[in-house]
Design brief:
This protein has 224 residues and is an all-alpha fold. The chain has eight helices and no strands. The model has no long low-confidence stretch (mean pLDDT 97). Bound molecules: (1S,2S)-2-nonylcyclopropanecarboxylic acid (Y39) and fe (iii) ion (3 copies). One fe (iii) ion (FE) binds next to α4 and α5.
Amino acid sequence: MKTINYYSSAYRTAFSHINGVVIMGETHAAQHFQKLAKAIHQDHDELMALAAMEARHARDFVGCGRELGITAAIPMARRLFQPLHSHFCTALKGGCLVRPMVIQGLIIECFAIAAYHCYLPVADPYAKKITAKVIDDEHLHLNYAERWLKANFAEQQEVIAECCRTELATTMTILKELWQHLVAIGIDPAEVVAEFVSLFNDTLIAIGFHQNRARAIGAAAIAR
Ligand code: Y39
Ligand code: FE
Ligand code: FE
Ligand code: FE
């Protein structure tokens, strides 16, 4: 295991950008689950509980920056998440639940789990404890979306597939823009991509896609 100097200026600049993306992502995630709670009455309380976890994550990751004496770079993060967030909001306003569920519950959650998992071995001791707990929560969020999409799979599979094609491309753009910052904090971005594609593939199969179609959806995401 290589040693990381959490106090080098290269580490701190990169961490500031990654920390900004994480805080922005968690803040959006909290809003997204609140909006879903309003739209899916039968699951209101469960979704509000997930929203509360996301708000907690945002606060906890602010604490990770504070611990290192680093301020998050928010403007870049806001720009990176803007497309996913606006696609989420536009679909929901148009009365669609499937797309918002795919964007937040499948794509963003799989991205979070893959990225946080790759971050764990290179995190400072304070952030490591927090990240480990956060990962457990993210699995609950993914699990909720998996159940919901599985129950709606028969009527919605084409919408789900199309939404994955569009939004996976959006997500890969975020990852590409973060590439050098990830490298600078000790994460191999190619490993994040590999873990993401693998987890996403398993999730597509769990909600009802046949193996070949699941693999094709994932392959299209990384081909661009
Ligand atoms: O469901 C969630 O909590 C997702 C919002 C969070 C997204 C996190 C995005 C992570 C990007 C790179 C992190 C490298 C450690
Ligand atoms: Fe979270
Ligand atoms: Fe909005
Ligand atoms: Fe989450």
